[in-house]
Specification:
Layout (H helix, E strand, L loop, with lengths): L5 H19 L8 H11 L6 H13 L3 H22 L9 E2 L2 E2 L1 H4 L2 H21 L6 H15 L4 H10 L7 H24 L7 H28 L2 H4 L5 H4 L5 H5 L1 H18 L8 H12 L3
Antiparallel strand pairs: 1-2
Helix pairs in contact: 2-6, 3-4, 3-9, 3-15, 4-6, 4-9, 7-9, 8-9, 9-10, 10-14, 10-15, 14-15
Length: 298
């Protein structure tokens, strides 16, 4: 869909994806109604949808069936939403604002928020199991394993564990990168690879290039996030600005300074672009997404 400009492509996918999530999430009138309402509250009407958009961009690269990409995009977004619900709870980051509205445990309660995260994670894997995403059943199992690994102790959850233990500590830049490769980057890399694997099979070299792209944009996303956390206000971000610094968490800004952090994000962006060089024009949307991640202001 390179025949339309990038903002139109984004808004079109965001709108249709919102409709998809509306259908895939349990309806609020189905028992247990309060839990289902809280699940919908935590997922719908918010967020940039960066991970689904990366899946769609990777799907465009290989000419994947959009109905298949919709499912993997939804699964990744549900995992992301569950992580935000849990991260915001008092036992973790103890935040009160997410996506411009009260966090789930504030709007409902702690117990409901815990169950919302559990349920969103389960629903993500239910979707991957009950829809055909690839013509090869073995490959589809590998896709399910990919998301599980990216979500668990060797991925997002493990990165969050490192984050919690790093409060008040001084990490080196390599240590901070290791944390964010897991906490933020693992799910972003999975989004790219899952979107691409909804289409015709790619070779190992091509998948490695896509994985490299995903790793670079995942780290760039976090670096830009740290810069925005230090420069933007709460209204713009839709979440509490300056929270990490106040909690004594190491960030790229506290380690490097704002200008060096911005330079690091630019270098990661350039590496991501280099990883796509061999794909040519079909990788146009992935390039657009890399530009968006670097230049975003929220």
């Amino acid at each position: 869909m390179l025949d339309i400009d990038f903002p139109t492509w984004v808004s079109s996918h965001q709108s249709s994806f919102e409709d998809q999530l509306q259908q895939l999430l349990p309806k609020p009138d189905i028992a247990p109604q309060r839990l289902h309402a809280a699940m919908r509250y935590s997922v719908l009407d918010g967020g940039k949808r960066v991970r689904p958009l990366l899946a769609f961009a990777a799907g465009d690269l290989v000419g994947a069936d959009c109905t298949r990409v919709n499912i993997v995009a939804a699964a990744v977004e549900l995992i992301h939403a569950y992580s935000l619900v849990h991260d915001d709870m008092p036992c973790m980051d103890n935040d009160v604002l997410r996506r411009g509205k009260p966090t789930c445990h504030i709007e409902y309660d702690d117990a409901t928020a815990l169950l919302v995260g559990d349920s969103l994670q389960s629903l993500a894997f239910q979707l991957l199991a009950e829809h055909q995403l690839n013509n090869d059943a073995v490959q589809q199992l590998a896709m399910i394993k990919l998301l599980a690994t990216a979500s668990g102790s060797r991925g997002m959850a493990g990165g969050q564990a490192i984050d919690l233990t790093s409060v008040g500590s001084h990490l080196s830049v390599p240590e901070l990168e290791f944390m964010h490769i897991h906490k933020t980057g693992a799910l972003i890399r999975a989004s790219v690879l899952l979107g691409a694997q909804c289409g015709p099979a790619l070779g190992e070299v091509e998948l490695a290039r896509l994985d490299r792209y995903g790793k670079c944009v995942g780290l760039a996303f976090q670096v830009v996030d740290d810069v925005l956390d230090s420069e933007a206000d709460t209204a713009t971000l839709g979440k509490t600005a300056g929270k990490d610094a106040k909690q004594g968490k190491p960030t790229y800004v506290t380690l490097l300074g704002v200008q060096a952090a911005k330079q690091m994000a630019t270098e990661l962006h350039n590496e991501a672009m280099d990883a796509l060089a061999e794909f040519g024009e079909p990788a146009g949307r992935l390039r657009d997404m890399a530009n968006f991640i670097l230049l975003r202001n929220y």
